[in-house]
């Protein structure tokens, strides 16, 4: 059986600082791939990485906001990390999740409601270590961000 080489390649590329400057290219490409695939696939899916789309009400507007994210599997739950490509600012989606108790997730063609929990305190260290073990690029993104503490959320099926 031939294994997919793309996840390993993506993990190597994800550790490269220059890759974080690719966001202006990747984000429109993500929207395009989602549109032509009928929302079944995104760029991360094509690279063999776990992705989901999370929809949450905007904290100010109340309007639904959808974002494609890499997730870290944690049992049946999903961890999402607000790395924002190593930017010094938190991603807008993380502020919206922080203000929400629940969200909607599209994952592998299934749509379901999740409970949103921001992970803090001693649990955060364990979650961060788990996330970095899964996606080592988070450490490089942390350095690029100037040491900003990334928000970590656990999404649990309701």
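-> sequence recovered:
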């Amino acid at each position: 059986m031939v294994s997919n080489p793309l996840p390993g390649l993506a993990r190597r590329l994800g550790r490269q600082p220059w890759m974080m400057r690719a966001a202006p290219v990747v984000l429109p490409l993500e929207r395009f791939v989602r549109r032509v695939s009928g929302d079944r696939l995104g760029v991360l899916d094509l690279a063999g990485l776990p992705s989901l789309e999370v929809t949450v009400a905007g904290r100010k507007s109340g309007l639904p906001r959808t974002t494609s994210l890499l997730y870290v599997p944690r049992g049946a739950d999903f961890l999402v990390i607000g790395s924002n490509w190593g930017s010094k600012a938190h991603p807008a989606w993380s502020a919206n999740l922080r203000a929400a108790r629940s969200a909607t997730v599209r994952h592998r063609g299934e749509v379901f409601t999740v409970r949103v929990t921001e992970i803090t305190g001693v649990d955060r260290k364990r979650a961060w270590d788990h996330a970095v073990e899964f996606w080592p690029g988070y450490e490089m993104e942390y350095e690029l961000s100037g040491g900003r503490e990334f928000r970590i959320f656990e999404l649990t099926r309701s």
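The chain has a mean pLDDT of 86.
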